[in-house]
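sorry for the late reply, my laptop died twice this morning and i had to redo everyting from scratch. anyway the thing you sent over, i finally got around to it. pasting the sequence first so we're on the same page, its 368 residues, then the predicted structure underneath. double check i copied it right bc i was rushing
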Amino acid sequence: MRPVPTLALALAAALGAAQEGLPAGGGAKEIPPDALPGDLKDLDLRIVLSSASRTFTARATYRVATPAGKRSLFFAARKIAVNAVTLDGEPAAFFQEEGGIRVVIPEAGGDRTVVMAYESRPMAGVIPTIDAPTDRDRPLIHSDGTAEGVPYWLPLPSGPDDLATATVTVVVPKAWQAVATGAAVERKDEGYDRIGWVFRERTEFPVARLAFAAGPLTETVTGSTPPVSHWTVPALQRAADARYGSAARMVAYFSRYLDREAPFARLAFVTVPDGAVAIGTGAGMVLERDDRLDDGPGSLAEAVAAQWIRPSPNDPSTAALLVRVLRGLYLRETQGQEAFDADRLDESTVGPNYWRRVHRAVGDDRFR
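ok and here's the structure:
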């Protein structure tokens, strides 16, 4: 294993300290068992989309470890109508409360399997353009790539930083394509002129960063280890090819610099209409508005670097700072020191104290 650069070590140490989540002073307080969240181990999600409706149906199967003494599981959810819940194969009592759904557990302790059937017509989290007058030639339904948006389309039984494996099946009309977090493993004929696209992420990841997109998209593969591709509508193919052509090189650079394998089975970039809002970076997916196709390589490098950096709920700004540092380092690698200096002096998007914080943390000499 090659030596890790000193700046990379400093970045990892800074991020690791932020993610520990240690309380400031004093000992740990005892928490009642029922106040503890369930620990999500695995998720199997099936979501059925329509080209003619904003409403979708879904079935989520959760394998959750529950602490002894816990008598219920809370699932964070917004604007979701739950039709049925089972616990270990038997009908379960559940009720809606502020901010989500609570499932009653008769006997606590150990791994439990919860299956939740629900439907939603989300006002956030999922963005449909199927009925937008300006986008009738490219109807899409996609998540917004933000952790805040996920509870509008997927009830979450644990904290935003919880890690789990996942299988996602996106059922769409046969004329559509679908992409989601994870490696593509299967396409299944669902009948009624529909097809199910199945994706599996075997490496644990923050499930609150799960993402998907579906519509009349075309995939272009630009890298193979790990797979890297971009998805867009035919009218934007040339611009997307120019925008994402260097993405595989960025993945290779950050893997080498941080001395860590890519934290995703496959990285997919999806171009969505410029009327979409709150587009972000999901696990193994980057969703960008088409008005960003002419942006320079810096913003793309930032989106790729974000795949390696897991934000801490205690200090999310540290993760953003580290991603920006990695962006600058990639620009130095590919365009030279002058491009790096220009990027770090541009404080239009990071605030006046940005580089002062970086310099205090790792020292100015490590940038040369």
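The chain has a mean pLDDT of 79.
thats about all i looked at so far, will dig more tmrw
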